[in-house]
Amino acid sequence: FLTILGNSAVLATAVKRSSLLKSPELLTVNLAVADIGMAISMYPLAIASAWNHAWLGGDASCIYYALMGFLFGVCSMMTLCAMAVIRFLVTNSSKSNSKKITKNTVRILITFIWLYSLLWAILPLVGWGYYGPEPFGISCTIAWSKFHNSSNGFSFILSMFLLCTVLPALTIVACYLGIAWKVHKAYQEIQNINRIPNAAKLEKKLTLVS
């Protein structure tokens, strides 16, 4: 309920002020769409199965649940990655360069994110990788057990782990560290010319926020 209400509020606000939205804010809207999609398509079945102490559906519903989880999960991860990259580019670019990140550019990026997520979600259905029950038997996801039992499963899980988890995560960390370093250098320069009192304290606060 909180997931649906919270993300619905984000979407309602975005619709209300759509003409005022800046291009990077479209990624926040996309993240809300992915999160609310996951909540609606997955949570009811997962909660009911947890109360039942066993998966309520059959094989078809298991594949559906795993597919939705992978689709929205990869979409959320890649959206967070894109948000970090754009924030880094804006922070480290001149005002004229930052304006080059238009709404059309972000829309194309969002389209690519959904196609990329859909591709990875469909691959187990066409023969590369597998979907199956999780170890506790109350939900379904990628068949992690195939990592050791099948070369097909091994190659899929390794590729997915690198391209959908490790690489985006490292990109996010690198971008926010870059932003923090940029803020640190900027306020270090300000401190050196004594334009602002208590610059060191301000620098620490802004670096922490970044």
From TrEMBL:
Q: Which Pfam families match?
A: 7tm_1 (PF00001)
Instruction: Tell me where the signal peptide lies.
Output: none
Q: Which residues cross the membrane?
A: 26-51, 63-89, 109-131, 154-179
Q: Which UniProt keywords apply?
A: G-protein coupled receptor, Membrane, Receptor, Transducer, Transmembrane, Transmembrane helix
Q: Which SUPFAM superfamilies match?
A: Family A G protein-coupled receptor-like
* Location relative to the cell: Membrane
The way this protein sits in the membrane is described as: Multi-pass membrane protein
| Chief place where the protein resides | membrane
One GO cellular-component annotation of the UniProt record comes to: membrane
Supply the InterPro entries for this chain.
Answer: GPCR_opsins, GPCR_Rhodpsn, GPCR_Rhodpsn_7TM
Query: What residue stretches are annotated with the G-protein coupled receptors family 1 profile domain?
Result: 6-210
Top-level division of the source organism's lineage: Eukaryota
- Gene Ontology MF terms: G protein-coupled receptor activity
Q: What is this protein called?
A: OPN5 protein
Task: Tell me what organism the protein belongs to.
Answer: Rynchops niger (Black skimmer)
Q: What is the lineage of its organism?
A: Eukaryota, Metazoa, Chordata, Craniata, Vertebrata
Q: Which gene encodes it?
A: Opn5_0
